[in-house]
């Protein structure tokens, strides 16, 4: 049954997906990594006592790979095969140890995410919780520029974001190598702009 075939892809999703409840906490907090695996005991088991191979992909691993596309990172997990139709964003299947894609149970924030008709999940649009970074850079002539990075995913329309920011702030700007550059020090206004559009901003 698909419910018992939980593997590395499930662990990767749990590690990479945002924890909504934690995002609502005002004060910064941390939690220990949580691994979910099939068990009939009903009791929590330390990860070092689980009698199975477990792969956990955390934020540090994603940063090291310089990608937020989860399926690309899953290619490096032993026993996991990833097949994609076309470019990034195309239909993507994940198979574990030779099983079919519909044999992989995918849960995001505790909710079964598989398509109810095909009973499998399309990993093509699954990305890790992206977060923008805002920094101020001083250039020649004591000129300041607000830089926005961390939004490299192809789904982000950086030229449109740049145009909207220039219109809002009444200043110039451009997109250079997947980085938005806005003339002047507008860190606070840019952060508000991004948060209003549901984009998380790293401190």
Percent of residues in helices comes to 10-25%
Question: What are the low-pLDDT stretches, counting only 5+ consecutive residues below 50?
Answer: 1-26
Second rung of CATH, namely the architecture of the largest domain:
Beta Complex
Terminal Cα span: 43 Å
Helix-strand makeup class:
alpha+beta
**Shape, please?**
elongated
Order of helices and strands: HHHHEEEEEEHEEHE
- Summarize model confidence as the mean pLDDT: 75
Number of domains: 2
CATH topology of the largest domain: Ferric Hydroxamate Uptake Protein, Chain A, domain 1
This entry's quaternary arrangement is single chain
Largest sheet: 5 strands, mixed
Q: Mind explaining what this structure looks like?
A:
β3 and β4 (111-112) form a beta hairpin. The protein folds into two domains: 2-125, Ferric Hydroxamate Uptake Protein, Chain A, domain 1 (Beta Complex); 131-201, SUI1-like domain (Translation Initiation Factor Eif1), CATH 3.30.780. The N and C termini lie far apart (43 Å). A five-stranded mixed beta sheet has the order 7-8-6-5-9, with helices on one face. It has a two-stranded antiparallel ribbon with strand order 1-2. The protein has a two-stranded antiparallel ribbon with strand order 3-4. With 203 residues, it is of the alpha+beta class. The chain has helices spanning 8-16, 20-23, 59-65, 70-74, 158-169, 187-196; strands at residues 80-84, 92-96, 107-108, 111-112, 131-139, 143-149, 173-176, 179-183, 200-201.
């Amino acid at each position: 049954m698909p419910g018992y075939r939980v593997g590395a892809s499930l662990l990767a999703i749990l590690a990479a997906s945002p924890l909504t409840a934690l995002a609502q906490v005002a004060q910064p907090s941390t939690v220990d990594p949580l691994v979910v695996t099939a068990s009939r005991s009903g009791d929590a088991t330390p990860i070092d006592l689980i009698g199975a191979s477990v792969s956990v992909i955390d934020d540090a691993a994603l940063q090291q790979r310089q990608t937020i596309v989860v399926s690309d990172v899953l290619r490096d997990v032993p026993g996991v095969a990833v097949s994609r139709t076309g470019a990034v964003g195309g239909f993507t299947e994940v198979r574990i140890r030779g099983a079919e894609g519909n044999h992989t149970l995918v849960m995001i924030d505790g909710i079964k995410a598989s398509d109810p008709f095909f009973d499998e999940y399309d990993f093509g649009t699954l990305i890790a919780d992206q977060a923008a970074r805002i920094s101020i850079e001083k250039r020649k002539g004591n000129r300041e520029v607000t830089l926005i990075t961390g939004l490299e995913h192809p789904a982000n329309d950086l030229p449109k974001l740049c145009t909207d920011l220039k219109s809002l702030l009444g200043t110039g700007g451009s997109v250079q190598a997947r980085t938005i550059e806005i003339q002047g020090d507008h860190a606070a206004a840019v952060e508000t702009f991004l948060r209003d559009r549901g984009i998380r901003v790293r401190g």
